[in-house]
Specification:
heterodimer, A: mainly alpha, Formate dehydrogenase/DMSO reductase fold, 15 helices, about 70% helix, B: alpha+beta, Alpha-Beta Plaits, four-stranded antiparallel sheet, 4 strands
Chain lengths: ~450, ~170
């Protein structure tokens, strides 16, 4: 929709206009980008079909490393998903004013990241057409799934997480969708009428009456309140996929908090990575400012320190346990065949984020963008290091081995990034990427208003 | 009942709306409704409606989820007994995870359903008094009253500096 000429009547009207104005118009750059993404997704699809046809031998996973890049990607994407709920639910409960402009995009990111993550257990299955065996129902002999298994916990955790995130995101969208519906009233042309119809269905008949608001705000509050323990539980459960096994390098009680911190760390990094090009492309520089990056930088730093502490604690525990297998696993992780990934992991996750101690760097959007990319890389390698080095170097030296991803695995990994970005870009052009309602609330409460960089915060 | 009249005032600032609603409520008028793009706790308090019933949905949903999580896991363990290492058939600590996730799932879904039921959503028919501005930057205060009190209410609403006041008879 072309933006309406002339100044807006009120700050509220300006917010609606700016955010809705960023929708639908897709320029050549956008279309080219979508085309590239679709090509990569298509290629990954080919690779997957190839793997299904010729079997799991086409992937690099083999004894002793039966969990490779696929499970790395799974854990990575679940981790990315976490900051969305953190920013939307936890910061909502804490009444942090700065969340308002990034929460919608972060929640969308959560959903797309879970959608991406959810594909990997399927891709990892040799016979993907039996994926429904995961669902909790009995087989022909009335034997139920083993509810003691962390893998079935994970099925429950991830599907609950996806459902709740989706509902939470959608309920946040309802008032905004109604704003769009009312803006589109009487839009000309077939396309205009289609859009009006679409948004009026999507907004479910929201009218903004006080009764509606009262019920809505309650429901939203409860969703936030239950999403908070949920987000902590989901990555804990993912970590137990590893920690419940007796593999050296995995069997550790620190795993749950360590993974949760890592998840939030990588998620915040992904929010920064995506929001920088996105605020620029949609012309929303006034809405996501240095103030927001400053705060995200602080969160990034905090979680980086927790992750760094966990790395050190892991080594201490391995040494202090006096268990030779455990210690050998950790020694080899740092100086063995996978020393490269280990160095990338520690540099990107522990050393580089230390730059965020400087306020000048936190408020420099370009610098934060670069740091966030390093963190994304580092966190992917962290998952790789934990999974692969532990499996490659278990108890018996005779069973040690190495793993190298095949072209199929690498193609599907690249495809997962394209798949995630594809959905995100589609979202940015069809739904209000910044919560219109919450920005208005921030203005009304005097917490923050568009263009405000809060220098003296 | 005698025919009732409706006074609608339109404001563009939520703080004014809070003042207007408060003065109307202090005079004892019951039938006040507010429309707007945002809502604040202050305004909710000024309107003074009872707490939303959604909380009951969330509680009942959560309890149902928790119970069914434990029930499913425990019942299925006994339904097909597989004794491993002489341990008990049902393992409460392991099942806590499932029960917890089910609690969250059911509580979230039922809170949302409760919200939809009490908001009469989804629907395509908006409130008869709905205006496009109510989802953008305008707040409407709508008071339904006896014809004899219309003038007083109009006066009161006007004193808060509305953009517009309308009386429907």
């Amino acid at each position: 929709m072309a933006s309406v000429a002339g100044p807006a009547r009120t700050p509220f009207a300006k917010v609606s206009r700016d955010i809705i104005g960023a929708l639908w118009d897709s320029d050549l750059r956008y279309r080219m980008m979508m085309l590239i993404l679709l090509t990569v997704i298509g290629w990954a699809g080919v690779a997957w079909i190839y793997q299904i046809k010729y079997g799991m031998g086409t992937a690099g996973i083999t004894h002793p490393v039966m969990w490779g890049v696929y499970i790395t990607n799974f854990v990575f994407w679940v981790g990315i998903a976490h900051s969305g709920t953190l920013i939307s639910a936890i910061l909502y409960l804490l009444r942090s004013g700065w969340r308002t402009t990034i929460n919608r995009a972060a929640e969308a990111m959560t959903i797309f990241a879970v959608m991406t993550a959810g594909l990997f257990p399927l891709i990892h299955l040799g016979r993907v057409w039996y994926f429904y065996f995961l669902a909790p129902y009995p087989n022909q002999r009335l034997l139920w799934p083993n509810f003691r298994s962390p893998l079935i916990w994970d099925f429950f955790a991830i599907s609950t997480y996806f459902t709740i995130s989706l509902l939470f995101w959608y309920s946040g969208l309802i008032p905004d969708l109604a704003t769009i519906r009312d803006k589109l009233k009487g839009a000309p042309g077939l396309w205009g009428r289609f859009k009006e119809k679409l948004y009026s269905y999507l907004s479910l008949g929201w009218g903004g009456t006080d009764t509606q608001w009262r019920n809505y705000r309650r429901a939203y509050l409860y969703m936030a309140a239950i999403a908070t323990p949920l987000v902590l539980s989901v990555h804990s459960v993912v970590s137990w996929d590893f920690a419940m096994a007796i593999t050296p390098g995995w069997h550790s009680t620190i795993f749950a908090p360590y993974f949760v911190a890592g998840a939030i760390f990588s998620g915040i990094a992904m929010v920064i990575t995506l929001s920088v090009p996105f605020r620029w492309a949609l012309g929303l520089e006034d809405y996501i400012t240095e103030y927001h990056y400053d705060n995200m930088g602080k969160l990034l730093l905090l979680t980086s320190l927790i992750v760094g502490y966990a790395y050190i604690a892991e080594y201490f525990m391995a040494w202090y346990s006096g268990d030779p297998a455990e210690w050998e696993s950790f020694r080899w992780r740092a100086v063995g065949d996978y020393m490269g990934p280990f160095v990338i992991m520690t540099t990107c996750n522990v050393v580089i984020p230390l730059l965020c101690f400087a306020r000048r760097i936190r408020r420099n959007i370009a610098a934060m963008f670069v740091i966030s990319i390093f963190v994304n890389i580092g966190m992917w390698y962290e998952r790789f290091v934990i999974i692969v080095t532990s499996l490659a170097h278990e108890y018996s030296p005779g069973a040690w081995g190495l793993y190298k991803p095949s072209w199929v695995e690498l193609s599907i990994t690249a495809g997962s990034f394209a798949w995630f970005l594809f959905w995100f870009m589609l979202f940015a052009k069809t739904l209000p990427a910044i919560s219109i309602t919450e920005v208005k609330e921030s203005i009304a409460e005097g917490v923050w208003s568009p263009g405000d960089k809060k220098e003296e915060a | 009942m005698a025919a009732r009249e409706t006074v609608t005032a339109i404001y563009d600032d939520i703080h004014t709306v809070v003042g207007a609603v408060r003065s109307i409520r202090e005079e004892g008028y019951e039938d006040v409704s507010v429309f707007g793009p945002i809502m604040e706790t202050e305004l909710e308090d000024a309107i003074g409606a009872p707490p939303s019933p959604v909380r009951r949905y969330a509680l009942i949903g959560g309890l149902t989820g928790c119970i069914s999580g434990f029930a499913l896991t425990t019942w299925s363990s006994y339904y097909y007994p597989l004794v491993v290492g002489g341990k008990a058939l049902a393992s409460i600590p392991a099942y806590v995870v499932i029960a917890f996730e089910m609690t969250i799932l059911f509580a979230g879904i039922s809170a949302l359903i409760g919200m939809l039921i009490h908001n009469r959503m989804p629907t395509l028919t908006l409130h008869a008094a709905h205006q496009a501005g109510y989802t953008d930057d305008l707040f409407g205060v709508r008071v339904v009253c006896e014809p004899s009190r219309t003038a007083a209410i109009e006066e009161m609403l006007r004193s808060h500096g509305p953009d517009e006041v309308r009386v429907e008879r």
